[in-house]
Amino acid sequence: MKKLLTGIVLFLFVQKSFTQSNDYTDAFRLINSWIEAQRDYSDIPSISVAIVKDQQTIWSKAYGMANNDSKVAATTNTVYSICSISKLFTSVAIMQLYDAGKLRLDDNIETILPHYTLKQQYKESGPVTLRSLLTHSSGLPRESDYPYWTSPDFPFPSQAQLNSKLSEQQTLYPSSTYFQYSNLGMALLGEVVEKISGQSYDTYVEENILKPLRLTSTRTYIPKEEWGTKMAIGYGATKREGPRDKVNLFDAKGITAAAGFSSNVEDLARFASWQFRLLNNGGTEILKSSTLKEMHRVQWADPDWKTYWGLGFSVSQQDGITIVGHGGSCPGYRTTLQLDPKEKMAYTVMINAGGESPELFAKEIREIISKIPKTTGPKSIINLEQYSGTYTSQPWGSEKIVTPWYGNLVMLNLPADNPDEAMIVLQHVSGDTFKRVRKDRTLAEEIKFEKDNSGKVIKILQHSNYSTRIILDKK
Question: What is the pTM of this model?
Answer without folding.
Answer: 0.92
